[in-house]
Amino acid sequence: MYMNVLTWNIKAGQNKDGSYPIPKTKNLDRIAEAVKDSKASAACFQEVDACTLRSGIKIHQAAYIADKLTSITGKAWNYEHIVSKNMNPGYYGNAILSCYPLTTALKISLPKVNSREDRSFLLTRVDGDNFCTYVGTFHLGLQGDHSIQAQQIKDILNNKGYFNKRLILGGDLNAREGSDTYDIMINHGFPMIDIGPAGVCTLNCYNNPDNPKIDFLFMRGLSTYVLRSEVLSADISDHRPVKLCQC
Hints:
The protein is an alpha+beta fold.
């Protein structure tokens, strides 16, 4: 049973400085090519726009990237999307894409407490060849909201019995290794493993490679014997993707 997974905050298709390329699909094409080159079979994306004024009223970014991956890989890519914020028009949230059949298992709203934005958590069931794995993605808030929201995620997964499933959770923690939020994801409710790599920058690395790692892949119920992880040196958005390879 093998599945390579990637997590990436794609910054709504913006350039790393917050501007938009011309055309606005240029970075989406680059993201799809990076996913293809990584040989990922599932991708967790955060900061994904759907039909907004800023990113293109006719562009659903998750659907666009899935279609692009279908075109360049020769495999049918599927996607599931969750709304974090209504942009009027359109929406902003998270998405999971896979070249395997994909169905939504859970959609969890994570309302703001101290910060300015609501966040969300999406869990999908990915049905591969003779196996299934639950793959989730999260984008947690700021100003202490990340700890509250991490606890909400772990509590719901625990209460709904996902603690004994094969789980891979990828996303933007907005907190670094060793933080209280990190400890919640690793230890509270049921244990998970930080797949790594440890101590590698994922945020604004083009400015300072010593910046913290705030993007993570957590796992439970899968063998660690053949795991390898890496942060890919792709500076399309202000975050770098983290990849898990089961090989």
